[in-house]
Design brief:
By secondary structure, this protein is an alpha/beta fold. It has helices at residues 14-23, 50-58, 87-95, 121-146, 148-152, 156-173, 180-183, 186-192, 219-230, 240-261, 267-278, 303-310, 312-316, 326-332, 335-341, and strands at 2-7, 27-28, 40-45, 63-64, 67-72, 99-105, 203-208, 234-238, 281-287, 292-298, 318-324, 345-347, 358-363. Helix content is 44%, strand content 19%.
Length: 365
């Protein structure tokens, strides 16, 4: 399951955002109480309006959306990399996620004390990033010491890893924002990924504003957007307090309230979609009378590997995939009509799954 970690300094709105996430109608009961050892965890469905439309057409009994697990990691503080606060435990929790959502305070409120005594979103971001980089530098040093004997003996994999670690070390020392595909080749990426370093994880900056700035942002959010763009990251503007209120209003009431604020979609929905985009993920669908089921794969996945997401036997015994595009299915209204119109295709093992493909896999066990 895809995991996204919510991080940030204390009092920036992380817990409010997490509470809104896991209290929504589409959140599953998979969260457990916060304590000093374990983070809050909530499993939240990915919004996809296509599923209900397909369920109506197929008269499906059930809809099974794809999900993201959100991990609410308690506030980091300066010095976390050296064990300040609950530093080591928090950093371990961040290492276990696929993407980092960094909540940044972009609102003024004299009743909510800022841990640094003033609102400065770029300083907040750099505090978090510095702590993650310092912790990673320590991990890199330990790893280099551990493989030093293999490197001296000329072990090919160890030599590749040592070179990648030295390059990483240099980039982090320089304060460079790391993009794996830009800075490393495939062999280097293969040895870096298992290390679960935090500085190489994709990041979304979640600019938390007051309700008055939700539509157009403010001077703080402009700073965050400029910083994110220059570092290859994404920004989503949210109002965590509003997100909490939307939960109580229901679907129609929430739409009406958002419309009054001049926005068309909730910040949470935008954030979830951004996580998908950031991790280069797409959705394919299986649909029938029993259920409409959404499945997540990485963009570029071939048909047999997509079949394996459903069941390993499907990949092992893959014969071909019967594929209908979502728009074609909706326009024609049924599998039979799609076949009559010739828009349903039989694809082989080299076919690359596209977002929204409705697929029936043929396989032999």
């Amino acid at each position: 399951m895809l995991r996204a970690g919510i991080v940030g300094l204390p009092n920036v709105g992380k817990s409010t955002l997490f509470n809104a996430l896991t209290a929504t109608k589409n959140a599953q009961s998979a969260n457990y109480p916060f304590c000093t050892i374990e983070p809050n965890v909530g499993v939240v469905t990915v919004p996809d309006e296509r599923l209900q439309i397909l369920a109506d057409l197929c008269k499906s009994k059930e809809i099974i959306p794809t999900v993201i697990e959100f991990v609410d990691i308690a506030g980091l503080v300066k010095g976390a990399s050296k064990g300040e606060g609950l530093g080591n435990q928090f950093l371990h929790n961040i290492r276990e996620v696929d993407a980092i959502i960094q909540v940044v305070r972009c609102f003024d409120d004299e009743n909510t004390i800022h841990v640094e005594g003033r609102v400065n979103p770029i300083s907040d971001i750099e505090t978090i990033n510095t702590e993650l980089a310092l912790a990673d530098l320590a991990s890199i040093e330990r790893r280099m010491n551990r493989i030093s004997k293999q490197v001296k003996s000329g072990d090919k994999e160890a030599v590749i890893e040592d070179g990648a670690l030295k390059k990483l070390n240099e980039l982090l020392q320089e304060g460079t924002f790391i993009n794996l595909t830009e800075h490393f080749n495939e062999d280097e990426i293969a040895v870096i990924k298992p290390l679960n370093l935090m500085s190489v994880k994709p990041v979304i900056y979640c600019a938390n504003v007051s309700e008055f700035d939700l539509k157009d942002g403010n001077a703080y959010t402009k700073q965050v957007e400029e910083y994110a763009e220059s570092h290859g990251a994404q920004t989503v503007i949210i109002c965590a307090r509003i997100e909490e209120e939307l939960v109580e209003l229901g679907e129609e009431g929430a739409k009406e309230y958002l419309s009054e604020l001049g926005v068309t979609d909730s910040g949470i929905n935008k954030m979830i979609k951004s996580v998908y985009e950031l991790l280069n993920l797409i959705t394919f669908i299986t649909a029938g009378e029993k259920e409409v089921h959404a499945w997540t794969v990485t963009r570029g996945t071939k048909a047999p590997q997509a079949a394996g997401v459903i069941h390993t036997d499907f990949e092992k015994g893959f014969i071909r995939a019967e594929v209908t595009g979502y728009k074609d299915f909706v326009e024609n209204g049924s599998y039979a009509a799609c076949k009559d119109k010739g828009v349903t295709r039989l694809e082989g093992k080299d076919y690359t799954i596209q977002d929204g493909d409705i697929v029936h896999f043929r396989f032999a066990v």
